[in-house]
Amino acid sequence: MTQDSFKDGAQRRENPDPHEKNRPVPRLIIAIVSLLLIWSVSYILLSHPSDDASLGDSRTMATLTGKPGAKPGGAVDGAQIYAAQCIACHQATGAGLPGVFPPLAGSEWVLAKDTVTPSIVLHGITGKLTVKGTAYNGAMPSFKDKLNDAEIAAVLSYVRANFGNSADKISADTVKTVRDGSKDRTQPWNGDDELAKLKE
Ligand code: HEC
């Protein structure tokens, strides 16, 4: 055995040196990644992210937070406030519930001078109240912390112009005057006793 053939034999018994194989990223993955890239870049370009936000759909913060009666542009919708705040008791027709909730339709309180209904809605009522000849003895909640002047004006203008009623609108200024004039009041009006004086 020559020196050479010994070397050959030893070499043949050895495992070849390990080497890193060439493993390319599968084409499918490349295709998916490139599609995602194309989609994301075109999405950004097509969605005009740097456009002026005021050119959007004109919804106000009030609309988005679901504050009742908010309309785009900041106007208040009396019908919506009525539906959100009053309908449960005074009903969709404004007829109330016999014996429990008095009617707003044709009510002498609703049609009285323009400071009466703001007083009622701001502070609420307890005790005996006579409406269209029937005595009620329920509790009308106060809305002074729930609705602002414009909202109370809108809902009362709506009530005074619907359910067969026809009386002048109530302005937010009137509500403000009544609110300021009665700001020390913490209790609801005591039915006929106190409200009759307001009507005069
Ligand atoms: C939880 C029920 C309830 C809700 C809500 C309610 N009311 Fe009343 N309201 C009453 C009751 C009860 C009376 C009568 C109070 C009494 O008997 O002392 C009354 C009385 C009134 C009166 C005077 C009497 C009449 O019938 O004209 C007006 C005006 C009125 N409510 C308007 C409103 C408006 C506007 C809203 C919504 C902003 C409203 N109410 C929400 C229960 C409610």
Could you characterize the architecture of this molecule?
The protein is mostly helical. It has a domain of 137 residues: Cytochrome c-like domain (Cytochrome Bc1 Complex, Chain D, domain 2, Orthogonal Bundle), CATH 1.10.760. Helix content is 44%, strand content 5%. The protein has 8 helices and 4 strands. A hairpin with a 2-residue loop joins strand 2 and strand 3. Helix 4 crosses helix 6. The model has no long low-confidence stretch (mean pLDDT 87). The structure holds heme C. The site of heme C has 30 residues, from helix 4, helix 5, strand 1, strand 2 and helix 6.
Strands, helices and their partners?
Layout: H1 3-13, H2 27-46, H3 61-64, H4 78-90, H5 116-123, E1 125-126, E2 129-131, E3 134-136, H6 149-161, H7 172-181, E4 189-190, H8 191-199
Heme C (HEC) binds near residues 101, 109 and 137.
Mean pLDDT: 87
Give the strand order of the largest sheet, numbering strands 1, 2, ... along the chain.
1-4
The rounded distance between the terminal residues' Cα atoms is 136 Å
- Corresponding CATH architecture of the domain at 63-199: Orthogonal Bundle
Number of E-state strands: 4
Key phrases:
mainly alpha, single chain, Cytochrome Bc1 Complex, Chain D, domain 2, binds heme C, 200 residues, rod-shaped, two-stranded parallel ribbon
In short, what is this structure?
The chain is mainly α and 200 residues long. Helix content is 44%, strand content 5%.
